[in-house]
Design brief:
It is built from eight helices and 14 strands. By secondary structure, it is of the alpha/beta class. Strands 1, 2, 3, 5, 6, 9, 10, 11, 12, 13 and 14 form an eleven-stranded mixed sheet that branches. It has a three-stranded antiparallel sheet with strand order 4-8-7, with no helix packed on it.
Length: about 260
């Protein structure tokens, strides 16, 4: 008889770094939607205590996560970027790499091949990459040109705000809602379920599409307090059904980032 699938059990952890279990030398790529600023700021600060941290993007990102962030290293050529990062990381433990500044002040992403070369150059102990852009929406699926995941990715973390559960599908909850509707066989304004969230993250056209074979996939659920424990746990269970063995749940509504691991 086939063994019944066990629902994942949440356990609180002290830090986001402990939850994500990042190791030195890894390239960590975040995809999907939701507000990742608190997660990235906390993770970057924690990893900086362990070694050199490089933050970059293959799409676009806001110019700074926190007040302590260094000015970004801007370069349109790889060799210039590498030289600038070497100089920056010789005097401090965190650097931001970008190819320039876009309209509105957003930082322009670097080609995915540059991430691979920076990894080979051992420019930092940890490389954190924003490999997607949901235009501030809580949820998305893969598009024609995104996510942009480098081949050197060790860990890919598809993200979504689980607070969209039971909300109707429209352009306030999803980036390119018409694409998401087609991918998940939904109607516009149909209410989203935990299964929809899981498929958006881990389905064939979800936020892990084009992830390198052999990399670790670690889904991240955001805004869990607004969603409530039932929606969060049910979404974690749907992710487990799609193969996720470990799911991280984060919330910052109290002003302090609270993290749980479903395993």
């Amino acid at each position: 008889m086939r063994e019944a699938l066990r629902a994942p059990t949440p356990a609180p952890v002290r830090t986001v770094g402990e939850a994500l279990a990042i190791e030195p030398g890894q390239v960590v790529v975040f995809t999907g939607g939701g507000d990742l600023r608190a997660v990235l700021q906390s993770l970057s600060a924690e990893l900086t205590l362990r070694g050199r941290v490089l933050l970059t993007t293959t799409t676009q990102m806001a110019p700074a996560l926190g007040e302590d962030d260094p000015p970004p290293v801007l370069a349109s050529r790889y060799d210039d970027l590498l030289a600038g990062l070497e100089t920056m990381l010789a005097s401090q433990r965190r650097a931001i790499a970008t190819r320039g500044v876009l309209a509105g002040g957003l930082l322009r992403g670097v080609p995915r091949g540059w991430i691979d070369r920076l990894c080979e150059a051992n420019i930092a102990d940890y490389i954190l990459v924003l490999g997607d852009d949901a235009r501030g929406r809580p949820l998305k699926v893969a598009g024609a040109d995104d996510p942009v995941i480098p081949g050197s990715a060790s860990v890919v973390m598809p993200c979504a705000a689980v607070s969209v559960v039971d909300r109707p599908l429209d352009d306030t909850v999803a980036y390119r809602p018409e694409v998401l509707a087609a991918r998940l066989e939904l109607q516009f304004r149909q209410r989203l379920t935990p299964r929809h969230i899981a498929r958006a993250l881990l389905g064939p056209d979800g936020c892990t599409r084009d992830a390198p074979q052999g990399c670790r996939i670690l889904p991240v659920l955001l805004d869990t307090a607004a969603a409530g424990p039932v929606a969060t746990k049910t979404t974690a269970y749907e992710l487990r059904k799609l193969g996720a063995m470990r799911i991280v749940a984060c919330d910052e509504s109290t002003g302090h980032l609270q993290v749980e691991v479903y395993a």
